[in-house]
Specification:
The complex is a heterodimer of chains A (242) and B (355). Chain A has 242 residues and is α/β, with parallel strands linked by helices. Chain A contains nine helices and twelve strands. Chain A has two domains: 128 residues, 3-Layer(aba) Sandwich (Rossmann fold), CATH 3.40.50; 101 residues, Winged helix-like DNA-binding domain superfamily/Winged helix DNA-binding domain (Arc Repressor Mutant, subunit A), CATH 1.10.10.10. The chains are: A alpha/beta (242), B alpha+beta (355).
Chain lengths: 242, 355
């Protein structure tokens, strides 16, 4: 996909910054829409779609975290790059846990911003491409079924599981190499792309969530196995024992 | 700050320990009195029994009274000296009351100490929290124009731009710099006003002169933005205020009105003065973006940001109206705001006393 076919929504209430970001994104070939208000951004998604949201945190009417959370709750999986003047680790984690993909503290370097935009879009391209065929769109293991395009799964109990985009991406990375060890760093790089989290422990939390959704006994997993000190191994048929 | 806090905390711990020590002392003294009374009562019973035994053995009553002065023998019967039990009971009551009063007084004094130290600690914590919030807000306010400046500069460094684009970016950077400069002076003003460090005169000030001068300084800008400014301030209207403070207040309200009208592509601003009883009212009315009626007090709070209009080129610091309110309060005046709602203009009324 060329840059020209990507549509980026810039949600920033400062007109100078918003204009500067839009101009630079356009110069890189992206189609850009700009909005200066949180609620307006949420409303925009009722009848429009884009490939990436550049989202300021301190916005009038609805802050960036709330915008991201609302969009995720409504099933919008569009990746989000947070921009904020507050750059402390707690705030970064809050942003990423509300469903953001990356986080950039103001003031930032233009090239770093463009690099991150490109990296997020590349990761989503990989995800979409690797879920494009009928064979790769659905993953079946141990009575569980996951539809990567719908971000939805059905566990062995028959219960529907709504996956977050990060959970789906982690599952996708692991499922690409069944039975092989995937390191935590590899998962971070493939799913988040940058050192946005303070530690690789965050990956562990996402694995725990996947186990709770799909393992018969999350404490004694058969599919999402920990390889101590290295990372994880995904075993679709669950034959190996932890 | 830290050593004062440490001192307060140490004092608080000492006072709390003393409080419990006094409670213990009252309880221990009462228990000691009760034990002593009990022991004396037992002694009396033993003396009575011994006296009765001696009496039965034929000892003379005088001899028995000599051995046990608390016992008398009357009509061949040994008994305690009349009034002894009552005086023992009265002594017990006196001591209990004394300990309760003394203990109560000390406990009350210690409670007062605890309350005073606790209040001081709470007030200090509030100040620290406010300072943290202020710093966080200030840094946030600065980082946005800083980010915009950096973005403009890096755009110029990264890309080959035609002269008109470069000119637009330079204008944007100059505007960001002006925004930061305004912020610095407004933040300094607000801190000074907040701490009451500024002293104001209260003297008769001709209102028309100040309004005409300030409006004159805004006329060119207003014309460029297609905004008409009308003034109706009768000559001779005088207010009791500080001339410099009046200048700042009118300037801030005009800045605010311009910022509210610019996003709509033009409009009107009017300044009307009238005398109401012993007061003078100056009404600054604009046809701008307005605000939600329920926000009429919130917009005077420090760093308050109300909903902006899309494509607005205004960057408020969130301090202008806070400064207006503080300045009016400090010279004994007041300011109120009113709007019919978003997009329906707004009205600010400044009220001063007449000399």
């Amino acid at each position: 996909m060329s840059e020209a076919s990507y549509r980026v929504l810039v949600v920033e209430d400062d007109p100078h910054l918003s204009a500067g970001l839009a101009e630079n994104l356009r110069a890189e070939g992206y189609a850009v829409e700009s909005i200066g208000d949180g609620q307006a951004a949420v409303d925009w998604f009722t009848d429009k779609r884009c490939d990436l949201i550049v989202l300021d945190v301190m916005l009038p009417s609805l802050d960036g975290f709330a915008v991201c959370k609302t969009l995720r709750e409504r099933g919008t999986t569009t990746p989000v790059l947070f921009l904020t003047a507050r750059g402390d680790p707690a705030d970064r984690i809050r942003g990423l846990e509300s469903g953001g993909d990356d986080y950039l503290a103001k003031p930032f370097h233009l090239q770093e911003f463009l690099l991150r935009v490109r990296a997020i879009l590349r990761r989503w391209d990989w995800y979409k491409a690797s879920s494009a065929s009928a064979a790769t769109a659905v993953l079946k293991f141990g009575g569980n079924e996951v539809d990567f395009n719908a971000f939805r799964g059905r566990s062995y109990t028959g219960e529907t599981q709504e996956l977050t985009e990060k959970e789906a991406m982690i599952l996708k990375v692991l499922a690409e190499k069944p039975g092989e060890i995937v390191s935590r760093e590899d998962l971070l790089e493939r799913v988040w792309g940058y050192d946005v989290f303070p530690s690789t422990r965050t990956v562990d939390n996402f694995i725990l969530r996947l186990r709770k959704r799909f393992e018969h006994d999350p404490a004694n997993p058969k599919h999402f196995l920990t390889v101590w000190g290295v990372g994880y191994r995904f075993v679709p048929d669950g034959r190996a024992s932890a | 700050m830290k050593s004062a806090r440490l001192f307060q905390l140490t004092a608080l711990i000492l006072v709390v320990v003393s409080f419990f020590q006094v409670c213990y002392w009252v309880i221990a003294q009462r228990a000691y009195t009760l034990t002593k009374v009990g022991q004396i009562q037992t002694l009396y019973v033993q003396q009575l029994e011994a006296s009765r035994a001696l009496l039965a053995a034929g000892t003379a009553p005088e001899r028995i009274h000599a051995i046990f002065p608390d016992v008398t023998v009357q009509n061949g019967q040994a008994a305690l000296v009349p009034g002894l039990s009552e005086s023992l009971g009265a002594e017990q009551q006196r001591r209990s009351t004394q300990y309760l009063w003394e203990g109560g007084f000390f406990l009350l004094a210690l409670c007062l100490c605890i309350a005073v130290i606790w209040r001081a600690l709470r007030a200090e914590a509030e100040i620290l929290k406010e300072q943290d919030n202020f710093l966080a807000l200030v840094s946030h306010q600065f980082k946005t124009p800083l980010a915009s400046l950096q973005l403009s500069l890096e755009t110029m460094a990264l890309r080959e731009l035609p002269p008109e684009r470069s000119k637009a970016l330079i204008d944007r950077m100059l505007s960001d710099l002006m925004r930061m400069e305004t912020m610095v002076s407004q933040i300094l003003d607000s801190v000074r006003l907040d701490r009451g460090r500024v002293e104001f005169k209260r003297e008769p000030v001709p209102l028309a002169g100040i309004v005409t001068r300030v409006v004159g300084q805004f006329q060119e800008r207003a014309q460029n933005d297609h905004i008409g400014i009308e003034t109706a301030v009768p000559d001779g209207v005088q207010i009791l205020a500080d001339p410099l403070a009046v200048d700042v207040v009118v300037r801030n309200l005009l800045e605010n009105a311009l910022a509210a009208v610019v996003p709509l592509g033009g409009g009107k601003i009017s300044l009307n003065a009238r005398t109401v009883g012993t007061e003078v009212e100056l009404t600054v009315r604009d046809s701008g973006i307005g605000f939600k009626p329920e926000d009429h007090t919130r917009l005077f709070e420090k760093f308050s940001r109300l909903q902006p209009v899309a494509n607005s080129s205004y960057y408020g610091t969130g301090l202008g109206l806070f400064i207006v309110r503080r300045l009016m309060e400090l010279v004994g005046g007041r300011v109120t705001a009113r709007s019919e709602g978003l997009g329906r203009g707004s009205e600010f009324v400044l009220t001063w006393q007449q000399p």
